[in-house]
Amino acid sequence: MLDPDEKDSAGMPLTARAVFIIGPDKKLKLSILYPATTGRNFDEVLRVIDSLQLTAEKKVATPADWQAGGNCMVLPTIPSAEAKQLFPDHKVHEVPSGKQYLRTTPCPK
């Protein structure tokens, strides 16, 4: 991929740094396009892969800045009774609306 905004001394576009993660279902799960002047963050790429693998197998989502082994979010689509069975140590967080959809759980194994 070429970065049309970044050019070399001859006026040719520099290559952009693109990262694509394709899932086992052959669907695009992540795409990141870094400008030619910005390096890639491999820790972030590995973090995303850990998250994608976890969330594909378990009924959780990962919050911003999640790290492998950290607390996860219980999917809001899971009924309370099922959440109690799947994640006995989960915690319900108070929200202004009073709804009980914001739930965290230790990272499932």
Automatic annotation (TrEMBL):
GO terms for molecular function: peroxiredoxin activity. Keywords: Antioxidant, Oxidoreductase, Peroxidase. One of its GO terms (biological process) is cell redox homeostasis. SUPFAM superfamilies: Thioredoxin-like. It comes from the Eukaryota. The keyword Oxidoreductase applies. Residues 51-87 form the Peroxiredoxin C-terminal domain. InterPro entries: Peroxiredoxin_C, Thioredoxin-like_sf. Pfam families: 1-cysPrx_C (PF10417). This is Peroxiredoxin-6. It comes from Penaeus vannamei.
